[in-house]
Amino acid sequence: MSADGPPGRLFKNISAKIASIPMILTAVVVFLGGTLWTVIYSFTDSKLLPRLNFVGLAQYERLWSTPRWIVSIENLAIYGILSLIFSFVIGFLLAALLDQQIRFENTFRTIFLYPFALSFIVTGLVWQWILNPDFGLQHIIRGLGWENFTFNPLYDARLVMFGIVLAGLWQGTGLIMCLMLAGLRGIDEDIWKAARVEGIPTWKTYLFIVIPMMRPVFVTTLVIVMAGIVKLYDLVVAMTAGGPGTASEVPAKYVYEFMFRAQNLGQGFAASTMMLLSVAVVVIPWAYLEFGGKRRG
Fold this sequence. Notes:
Layout: H1 6-10, H2 14-19, H3 21-41, H4 58-64, H5 67-98, H6 105-113, H7 120-130, H8 137-143, H9 160-185, H10 189-197, H11 202-213, H12 215-230, H13 234-239, H14 251-261, H15 265-296
Helix pairs in contact: 3-15, 4-15, 5-9, 5-12, 6-9, 7-9, 9-12, 12-15, 14-15
Transmembrane segments: 21-43, 76-98, 110-130, 159-184, 205-230, 269-289
Domain ABC transmembrane type-1: 73-288
Keywords: Cell membrane, Membrane, Transmembrane, Transmembrane helix, Transport
């Protein structure tokens, strides 16, 4: 039998396969096992401790009839839509500017990416100070003479999510910029030369030629951003603790509150399962586009 047959392929790179066993076991036991355990117990009436007393869809019916959960979903939708739009637009524009071989590019890239090195807790505290009406932006501008200037989104239930979006954009846009810049640097220089020869304006080259060629970069960036949106928690806790009232409540905070404070594990498991489904809605199409298309090719 040829060495390239099934037995030969099985023992190829055997050292690497043996070394990967702990990682595979961790993924299967911790991640898949924990996920399955959470889904199963979301159909029970577990309170302080998990117990296999199944109640069907009762936890999910209660979840979707709770105004606090509905508010958290609406807030996440607002944050997600605005974050996606502005982070992609600003990140791409910054990447396009840096792609012009400007002076001190490394310095600007470091400055834009630096906020991403900070934790969400630090970012939340910094922006809590910036948006505080007593000593933040509002106080500074009033000190310059504009006595009637008002800007305190964290204390206004109608605007609080927009304040959180500002903080999220400040931290995450630098990463988007770097991903986009890497994609731009991968575009063949001959394409730019051909566009110049044809007299195509730069903005049209970006819009109709470069951006379609960067589809894999956009898809990967979308998955990264969406994963960060779904697990939004630290930023909200640091800036508003979910307030005023429940105006900035998000699903991850809802899960934490019910699992560790309200001592209602069943309800927390149901909420976390819904969060898992939202992640699957993003990851499965991405995996199909990335790997299914390659197999067909």
